[in-house]
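ugh ok fine here u go
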Amino acid sequence: MTPKLLIPEAALTQHVIVLGKTGSGKSSKLRVLVEHLLRQDRPVCIIDPKGDWWGLKSSADGKSSGFPIVIFGGEHADVPLNAHAGAHVAELVATGNRSCLIDLGGWMVGERTRFFLDFAPTLFKHARGARHLVIDEVHNFAPKGKILDLDAGNMLHWANRLASEGRGKGLTLIAASQRPQKVHNDFLTSCETLIACRVIHKADRDAIKDWIDGCADPATGREVMAELAGMKRTEAWVWSPEIEFGPARITFPMFATYDSFKPQAADARKLKGWAAVDLEEVKTKLAGVVAEAEANDPKKLKAMVVQLQKELRAAQQQSGPTPEQVAEIWSAAAAEASAAAIDALRTEARPHIEKLQPAVEALAHALLNGWVPPVAPARPSPRPRENIRPSSPNRVAVAAPAPRARPAPSPRSPKDAGDVAIGGTPRKMLNAMAMLDALGVTEPTQATVAGWVGISSKTGTWRNYMSELRGNALIVDLPGKRTMLTDAGRDVADAANTPPTLDKLHDIWRSKLGGTAAKMLTVIIEAYPDSVMKNEIGEAVGIDHTTGTFRNYLSEMRGPGIIEDVSRGGPVVATELLFPEGLR
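structure:
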């Protein structure tokens, strides 16, 4: 039975904003509206920065199909996606009637910004006919506050332009945010319908009050404001002044598709029910994007490196490789790694191929660091030279002694795990790399590993430890002061080093920092995937964010790469080292 829409149909012909704190049912109510539109075969495009909307393609019990939408990107992708595909996807969305989900879950801030900067203007330019654009966690795209980064400013411009001028292009926006205080005022006031869920924080309540003061009747809105903190998860105040509806306190039904918003089990199997879609046209238009995504797939590159290391080791154990054999192995690797790039070139994707080049160079560097050339023949001793100093009656010219030739080093080959004895700090370093490798961080920076074991990567002691691991063929160096385990390194490392939970991983990093820095890290972690302003961090832990001490604490986290600056002087955000793919 199709559930009845509890708000006027006319409300969905104008922009809608859904606001509420985490756990207030904000996304669930947004899903109810989206399902209603999909049942009416209206084209809908959903931008999902969290990566949890894929349940639309299956029924509530996961046994039958849901809605036949195309999923771009994410773990359940029909078509892979990268940061440079925004314009291509927008053109497909704007010129067709297909509904789709753009899954940006797990993307870094810079990647998400790059995608939206290409997507939004292309959609605005080519949009024809009525369609809905749904943006979850819209504060990521229309942020409120001081904008110090040029790209972030351009992203805000296009988000606001879609809201203020999109209706003229046939675009109707439905947006949601768990951080009402972070949504730009221009975007908020462009929305004619408010769906207000439970909020508690004063700044979030003020954001809803600003909408009421600007778009509705402040006197009538007092009842809404008074009850915001006590709303149930299923409830929301709905107010659409332009169509003279509300404010009405409404209890929303549960959405009808699979609940992908709840945490999924680590060993969850693929759902039996899954809506099929015709992807031929989509894949044809995005051929270059697909080729680049596959060429840059870290898992495929890692598997290629591992296989080549095994082949190289087998050749060394037989008779020691000749330079010609090494050249042949590398040529084959280079040809395989660049095959996808050649396909992309044929579809006029030259910029994407250039991005592939660093990965190919890193692969070459890893191979060459795993093999030492045969001993070169000793250089001939220089000819004795005559003493050219002036002669004297008591001194005669004598020949200088020939210098001793140094013995040439013997070839080095990887050792079996049983032949390597590594202890103390070097073993901690090796274990840290193994843990990160298991979580999907296959090429950590040396600073990240150093932060884990509690030692500076700029000291001679650190270099000696790295030399010990390198000399035993347990690691190889990569460009950018990064490193990677060899097969032997994985064998020697302790197997029980992977944290069992995300909370455990966070606790370990907090213990490395200690004190106030650990408290600051907690604030940043709790805000993820959103960024957090420095003054908010300072207020939360009771320290002035303008002091050198505060900046030093941030540097302690920035050094190993567990946080990054969204923009120069702006907010900070946790990185994938704190939320690795293996534990999300």
